[in-house]
Amino acid sequence: MPIFPDLRMRRLRKSPALRSLVRENHLDVGDLIFPLFIVEGKGIKREIDAMPGIFHFSVDKLAAEVDELVRLKVPAVLLFGVVNSKDETGSAALDPEGVVQQAVRTIKKTAPDMIVVTDICLCEYTSHGHCGVILNGDVDNDNTLSLLAGMALSHASAGADMVAPSDMMDGRVMTIRKALDDNGFSQIPILSYAAKYASAFYGPFREAAGSAPQFGDRKSYQMDPPNVREALREIEEDINEGADIVMVKPALAYLDVIRRARDSFNCPLAAYNVSGEYAMVKAAASRGWIDGKKVTLEILGSIKRAGADIIISYHAREAAAWLNEQV
């Protein structure tokens, strides 16, 4: 290998065109999924305090937002429902006329080519805020599975293009896959939150979704943050159960996990740039401590560089505008 002065690494950095020509990873609008929070009621577009620039939408306010996302060439949205009436089993999650089901139909009518992904988890719908049925003070894994399958079926029936189980119950992918296949939805892919950590970065989301647990925490079913080998086992299990896409969540503090997953598996890999990561950037940018645009694109680029094919991010809408400017 040549060394200085024959080797001058700066030769390929001296102009934007040269840097672009040899760039190893390219962040594209087509990589992004934008999360949307759907609430009950009418005429609602309400900014979420902990997530500046992110809103609660009632179904009747969705069309304008979706039209803007189409204009920006954002290819997909991920829907979360926020409901007023909750019970022990999260029964509102399976309601054919629930907010997510209505939202799916509205979005597909407004923008038929928009990919609509729906989150499959009970935490936003249960009175206790946990992701499954409570038995003897703990989340009962096996009794939760049929409810998750029913929720997925309800979303598929409404027209969802993809379902995304985020509950971290063992066996949920297999159960959902079987339910979809047995009911004529074999074409619906599953995007599994395969390696979802019990992270402190979810705080703003729990405010937005009203999903904070009313007792205890989620450490008995979400992953322990220090572990990476366990993440690979979780991902492998979900692939074997029928997941079409697997996800690592969060993204920024788990870039090493994304890299290990990319090196270990050939299926499409998603990463979730979560609410706490978003809120930190917004808070620092609002104080003038960082350049929000540059930091956001650098973070999203790092997630892509680590190996993610798909990035779910609350920055997706604004990042799309910035990336379109560069074309």
Write a structural description.
There is one protein chain. This protein has 327 residues and is an alpha/beta fold. It has one domain: Aldolase class I (TIM Barrel, Alpha-Beta Barrel), CATH 3.20.20. 38% of the residues lie in helices and 19% in strands. It contains 11 helices and 12 strands. It has helices at 16-21, 62-71, 99-110, 141-158, 172-182, 203-209, 229-241, 255-264, 275-286, 292-306, 316-326, and strands spanning 32-39, 45-48, 51-58, 76-82, 115-120, 134-135, 138-139, 162-165, 191-196, 245-249, 269-273, 310-313. The strands form 2 sheets. Strands 1, 2, 3, 4, 5, 8, 9, 10, 11 and 12 form a 10-stranded mixed beta sheet that branches. Strands 6-7 form a two-stranded antiparallel ribbon. α3 links the parallel β4 (76-82) and β5 (115-120). α2 packs across α3, α3 (99-110) runs parallel beside α4 and α4 (141-158) crosses α5. The two termini are 36 Å apart. The model has no long low-confidence stretch (mean pLDDT 95).
